[in-house]
Amino acid sequence: IDELLAEGVSGKRVFVRADLNVPLADGLITDDGRIRAVLPTVKALAEAGAKVIVASHLGRPKGAPDPQFSLLPAAERMAELLGKPVAFAQDTVGPAAHDAVDGLQPGQVAVVENLRFNAGETSKDDAERAAFADQLAALADAYVGDGFGAVHRKHASVFDLPKKLPHYAGYLIATEVGVLKKLTEDVKRPYVVALGGAKVSDKLAVIDQLLGKADRLLIGGGMAYTFLKAKGYEVGISLLQEDQIPAVTEYLERAEKNGVELVLPVDVLVAGEFPDLKTKAPANPTTVAADAIPADQEGLDIGPETRKLYASKLADAETVFWNGPMGVFEHPDYAEGTKAVAQALIDSPGFTVVGGGDSAAAVRTLGFDEKAFGHISTGGGASLEYLEGKTLPGLAALEN
Ligand code: 3PG
Known about the structure:
Shape: elongated
Oligomer: single chain
Pfam family, one: PGK
Number of helices: 16
Pathway: Carbohydrate degradation; glycolysis; pyruvate from D-glyceraldehyde 3-phosphate: step 2/5
InterPro entries: Phosphoglycerate_kinase, Phosphoglycerate_kinase_CS, Phosphoglycerate_kinase_N, Phosphoglycerate_kinase_sf
Strand content: 15-25%
Helix content: 25-40%
Number of strands: 17
Radius of gyration: 22 Å
Structural class: alpha/beta
Distance between the termini: 15 Å
EC number: 2.7.2.3
Bound molecules: 3-phosphoglyceric acid
Strand order of the largest sheet: 5-6-4-1-7-8
Family: Belongs to the phosphoglycerate kinase family.
């Protein structure tokens, strides 16, 4: 982007592909981290006199307008954060978008409606995606890719559009890639990775990679129960992906062979039912050993011994990557595991990276100061796929 700014952008229409996919509850934004993360790019362009067009997806609408996924709340929040008006177009490439862009004065900003209200955005058909990219290209003179959270998606606005306009990487993408490089090239050891979240299947590829790179892997969240089951423990009615047990068993064996410490919960908080996240009514969980989960109970957080164990495994880390909550942190009775890991990262002397929409939102909604971490990534799937060593379409497109 510095190159673009040096060339001069005054009066130019610059399309910024952001990731404004923020969590919403009853139409209200519960965490605006992703909006704040793209502000440096938007501000720099506006201050240099560009006409800034910001575009993003939000949620997973099915290729047609769906009011619950409107980007309007994100546009309004962006206006608040910028401290100046932001125009909002009620379509993405139609008359409203063209009107909004035509109405921009140098230094002004417009947000167009959700990219995924258009089937061409996510289409698997190259021609259909390219056609939508042509429509997007008609709005702008230059392209800035800054939606790090979406760079792993081969979507029209991420992958096809940069080929049609002079293209540049924004500040957020540059920062994110710089941080992830520190985790993949010449990493400082001990390198400890904490992985949580619901599904082990989402994490298989990254675990596979990390078994050759990390010194310790701490496992929590819903995915821990598939590991416990693979070790031969009964897990009651906890989340379980039976079909992943063979893969997980192989990982347990490989970890031992490679000298990687793969650390599993030693105790967990269990209850007979999933907590009510709306009322947050007391859930009254009990603590049981990880090998003694009752048949009618569900594990919903790591227990107190595990919290201490994981904190001790993080205490001397020189590099930490954490992705995925340790329990159902949205309910106060099951937030302690996630809080303990967040605190251990803060206390660790090393370089700490929080990756993932959920864990990033967790540290902020649990009241931690984001500045206490080395870096909070805006990318969940994107940062995992980067660590897996995959080529990310949105980064490859910017390189060419
Ligand atoms: C994310 O939340 O990880 C990104 O915004 C990408 O969203 P997606 O998984 O719906 O493509």
